[in-house]
Amino acid sequence: MENISVAVIGYGNLGSSIVKGLVRSQKIDPSNITATRHRPLEGKTTNYLGINVSNDNVAAVKASDIIIIAVKPYRVKSVVEEIAPALDPKKHVLVSVASGVTIADILGFLKTEDLPVFRAMPNIAAAVGESMTCISAHASTKEQSALVQEIFDQSGETLLINEELMDAATVLGACGTAYVLRFIRGMMQGGIQIGFSSHDARKIALQTVKGAAELLISNGKHPEEEIDSVTTPKGCTIAGLNEMEHQGFSSSLIRGIVTSYEDILKSK
């Protein structure tokens, strides 16, 4: 990937997370990465990353192989129409990370179906190389699909899915980050109530969540198998788990996920 050039159109929270993930991976030279944004970027940010910065989307496209559209969904149409004349099906691969914008929408904005178009849904953990990114493709070769997947692999884990599941992937993988953060905040609040300082409660909660995830990743077990290994008869763990279930812990989480998904469907 060292000879690949990437343009990230839209340097907001998600776009900057993708750029930081790419720079962090050291698989792509920062000088081969261009980020564009209407508002000027702070010099200290760009100097630190070593990337190119521009407010010229067309120039960024012409200088790049992979084009990642990371603007707000309502701006995708105008941006795609702006860069469409500069896109070459023999050179460029277009990737959209805009939530709710389908591949069919993008093809309509392009007024062609010849260009390889991908839809990807990473999350903000891309900035630290721990995103979960789901990817769908149109008119791509195996090599192009592998390249796009490799690019997002630098920011975490990837999964190729049918586009019909992309809204669900948005909820589980992107909105899910916020759900987990809210859970961590709840752990911290509980820790403070039973005697820890905010700093210590945060440290314990973060490492506990990280450790639990690593257990499942390493062992490949179902969560309940690991839960069974730490619950003992009449123990404090099962007492706490049962109380959480009595208060609707799992049910609330499931309902929250489903509500977010339904909200996406309503917005279409």
Beta-strand percentage range = 5-15%
Largest sheet properties:
8 strands, mixed
CATH superfamily of the largest domain: NAD(P)-binding Rossmann-like Domain
| CATH level-3 fold name of the largest domain | Rossmann fold
Global outline: elongated
Overall number of structural domains:
2
- CATH structural architecture of the largest domain: 3-Layer(aba) Sandwich
Extract low-pLDDT stretches: none
Number of helices: 11
CATH first level of the largest domain? Alpha Beta
Percent helix, as a range, is 40-55%
Q: How would you sum up this structure, described in words?
A:
It holds the Pfam family P5CR_dimer. One of its GO terms (cellular component) is cytoplasm. The protein folds into two domains: 6-161, Rossmann fold, CATH 3.40.50; 170-266, ProC C-terminal domain-like fold. The protein is 53% helix and 14% strand. The chain has helices spanning 13-25, 43-49, 57-62, 76-83, 103-110, 142-153, 166-193, 198-219, 223-230, 236-246, 249-266; strands at 6-9, 33-36, 52-54, 66-69, 93-96, 117-121, 131-138, 156-160. It has an eight-stranded mixed β-sheet with strand order 3-2-1-4-5-6-7-8, sandwiched between helices. Helix 7 (166-193) runs antiparallel to helix 11. The protein is elongated.
Q: Short description, anyone?
A:
This protein has helices at 13-25, 43-49, 57-62, 76-83, 103-110, 142-153, 166-193, 198-219, 223-230, 236-246, 249-266; strands at 6-9, 33-36, 52-54, 66-69, 93-96, 117-121, 131-138, 156-160. With 268 residues, it is an alpha/beta fold. The protein is elongated, with a radius of gyration of 21 Å.
